[in-house]
Batch of 3 targets.
Target 1
Amino acid sequence: MLKCIKHLKKSTKIYPPYGSKSNKEIYKFVINPSPPDYLTNETIVIDQNILKNIEKVYNEIIDHLQKAGATVCDNYSQNVTIAVAESRSSYLYLQAFRDGKVVASYRWLTNTILRIKNISPLSTVIDYPYPKGGIPVDGAKLFHLSAYRDTERYFLTVIGVRCGLIYSPMLTQKVTFFICPTTAAVNYTMALNFDVEVVNHVWLEESFRNWVLHKTSRQHYIVKEQQYQQVGETQLSPSITTEKNRNESSASPPVADVVIADY
């Protein structure tokens, strides 16, 4: 069964989504054909819309899950323990949420297969289903990322857009938020001179988690010489599984996930 969250920080590595580009090469989604029994007693159902995206590796994924001890079913039932849902407004999510089941995102599925560990979807904001749309934001607010590469850059770009921001590949004076892990990041000094808001990625992750753009003045958002925490380590509160989800009702119109090919 799913492990408790408080011991998971070293196990929550995030991986590129299937089919993404990393260093201008198609990321190799390597599935272990002989996994250990890390999904014993789990019954998993996957949203039909997600299955369309993994059609080329569907048989490999199902074979891996079953060899890891899971039962994979075609339709939702009370026997399901984990529902892999497309978004927080999908029919599968609403069913599973109502019934108190574990709900996970497509990224949890691929991360889990590559981690070869059964970790709670609440252990990182990327493993839980996203709301549709983005945070309502007044006016156009641009954000620029510095010193993040590969999976980290992809992840932060996607949740930045989900936060209602506009990704800017270049640092200009029109940028509202300059996001970097340390003061050694490229263009850190230039961002200060441009008088833009300079924050670390924790600000972006917590804004996404709480569905509101936080004030950038909080102490743990300040960029320092040493990185505060690794990308993707922001956890969701277990209360999200017991209280009515408020994110969908306050979301702006749906936005497409951003594909970054030059990171």
Target 2
Amino acid sequence: MLTLASIPALPTEQRSRTVSEESTQTCNDPLVSSCNSTEGLPVDYLFDATKHFTDGVQQVPEDPGRYLVQQYQDFVHSKNQELKNIIYNTKEISKSLNDPLEAFCLKKNLENLKSEFEILLAAHEKHSRSVRALISSADAKTLLSEFSEVIRHSIADLSEQVTTDLRRLNDITHLKRHEKVYTIGCFDLFHRGHASLLQSLRSFGECLIVGIHDDYSYFQLKGKYPIDPLEVRIKTLKPHCDMIFIIPSTDPTLYIESMISDQDVERRSACYVRGDDMPEFPSRELVESKMPVYLIPRYHSMSSSLARSILLSTGAVKPCQPSTKSRKSSLEQQDGAETPPQNVKRYNPY
């Protein structure tokens, strides 16, 4: 029986498995070395033409050029087949799709698969040039040209197939979406990672409702002030969601409970979605009693903590001050240091 585990996890658009200093340029010929440059390609897409031409041969073939082209054909066909298998498994799972989280993961896989085809095509263009530089016979060059044309058409067809599958999956999941989607966060130094996450939450429902911690509860949670005060964080967050509610406490239970109507609970028309980096989040017990909870995989692209460290170290920004006078006076007793008051028990669920 096929499950989500049947689909190999595909890398995101920012591939980390790339070659830099350990580039496989093993030939002294400047032309071949230039053509055989693999900078920027993922490790699993490397085809070292010069290595196959020397180390890969047990005995000298009758036509070395044709032999090398056939070796390269086998390599590309293998990568192509891996991607075809992923497409097939995705289709099989989508036939019995009934869980929004499964739909989300499948869509992410298909979106990443489109990027994978672009990588395969770029790898083919680089490697075919290096293979052509190593062969001399006309027959081998003709064989390589014919194969290049076939593989380009194959990649284009598979990419179009993925686009069609994405459209079909969007149609299926649109019928299964909830009316409301809830989530909670701090959203300091709003960046593309936040925007991508909120866009992903749209896959689960029509109306996106976001809880945001005020400056003081942020301080209690993290032991430091946010860079952007609450007013700025609300303004940057609002274009990416439909409704915002403020949480002035480290425990959001009371505030999210006040946002959920009895009708939503009875009709099961709402859901709660957050990243899977903290499954035991505050208020989970209450939330699960009211609506389904979906924990989606985090796709790391940028970190608020990293951005904060860089900006503070350069003096480009300063932490904001609490907006309420009574809270501000209690915090000023700490001499402006980014440490919580002594009587505050700090924990950070976000």
Target 3
Amino acid sequence: MAYYNNIMRAIAILTVAAGVNAHSWVEQVRRIDSSGAFTGEVGYPIGYVNRTGPHFIDGLAQNRILDTKSNPVVCKPKANAYATHNRLAAAPGDYVALVYQENGHVTQPYITPRPYRDGIVNVYGTMHHEDSDGINDVLNSWTADGKGGNGKGQLLGTHYYDDGQCYQNLGLNFAIPIYAERYHEHGLNELFCQTDFQLPEDLPTNGTYTVMWVWDWPLITSDTQNTTEIYTSCAEIELQEPQAGKNAKLKYSSKNAINKAGIASQLETQFEATGLGIGTHPPTAPTATPSEDSTTTDKASATETSSDPTRSTTKHHKGDVKTVTVTAEPETTTAWKTIIVGGAGGAEQSATSAGVTSTVAQSTTTSTDVAVPTSNVPVVSVSKFLRARATGQVRRGGSDQS
């Protein structure tokens, strides 16, 4: 029986792998209200193409980077990008979800050797986007305090590509373990992935703000060498006055439908993923104790410090909050370091952080195609790039899929 089950599982994997040759990109942009639920009209990314269209191919929607040496652009051209589709409307301080399909990368991570939880998604934002903005100008250059690189933008959040709950529709093929587990847990045909972040509170209430979704998904060739693959999506957000009062505190509701709400852990911890780890292994998880200042939830499990290495929390203190921010030059990866910085009133915070690899991510494909290596990236320490910053009071906090 065990032999038979293994054969059937192998057939199922090969069947799905042969039938799926899609990549990931942001498909929708959603505003998140104070209960954690999606609200308002759907927004779309720059260069949006409906994947159900008759002549759709991946290349129309994706922006794929296999070599960073020439500093290729991060975003598709913005001219006429919103002639037929809406920008998301949101206010300074609002929480936002960038929604994408996993296309088999989450449910079938063993097709090619990739980092833990399929790599890291970094979200950057700028009021000064130009079509010429290159990947090296942004990735591992812009920092959360807005002072890194050319100073045009800032890092808004870092999360794993696998958000811990999403999966694609695999036609009830329960021989694929991750799909089977999540399908039975959530009972939906499919559940889109998302990357959640908060817009800076000091933005103006008019104009457009560009956010950049940068998925770092290197092909692992050894524990000391990666092959660059990055996929990016960008979206313009139309800034507006706050809809529910400035700085409304987010309290995540347990009544939220999972496919119509943000993810509590991402809203609570904006910088959740701080390193790719070595090979396919997870990085060491930072540990900290949530404080009463952080985002509240009526689900007790969402406020507890998790022992799961896929999650982390940040210690908060009354008044100013000190956060470790990682910056790195292109072509660097993961090294952990703990530093102590002074908090408000002399309080101290210990935070463990890691370097973020500049090995690049490819859009989600579950096919057996392996990208031709164009840029081999050595794994080296980034501890010299670590820096502490003061962020002030921190509030931690898709696509409707019916």
